[in-house]
User: Fold these one by one.
Assistant:
Number 1:
Amino acid sequence: MTQIVHHHLADAAQRLAHGIWNMVCTTTVAVPETLATWQERSHTRAALRDLDDRLLRDMGINHADAHQEARKPFWKA
């Protein structure tokens, strides 16, 4: 009986360790990707805000839509 309990505890510990490792690996990749996305979004919106009406028309974007997009916080898609 003690061996069965020990085996189940060892399996549970191994599953827990595997889950923690997966979470660490996912976070290690996801955080830098998210930061890079936010930085790119911030730069793109700043550039959009600075475009003149002629360039916006060439892109098919009106002035109001461009300013609405430029006002969004960097973390919002």
Note: The chain has a mean pLDDT of 89.
Number 2:
Amino acid sequence: MSNSGKIKSYDVAKGSGAITPVKGGDALPFNKSDLQQQAQEPREGQAYTYETREVNGGKVHATSLQMEQGSAPQGQKEQARKQQG
């Protein structure tokens, strides 16, 4: 089941960040490798859908993050259209 959330933070140097669930609750950590569009750096406030998984003895992480339609800044939208063909 997909969840929805907004990027709370993302550290480009570390390649990790946190996403806050729309339905409430604590922000979930994620890594750059968890992003479906790894070429695009997530920005604070962008809406993403994601899955969850348990790691390290039950801690929940976000995985398979995908930017929701209409959430990308204009420059990224144009770049995404070009990549799709």
Note: Residues 79 and 85 are 10 Å apart (CA to CA).
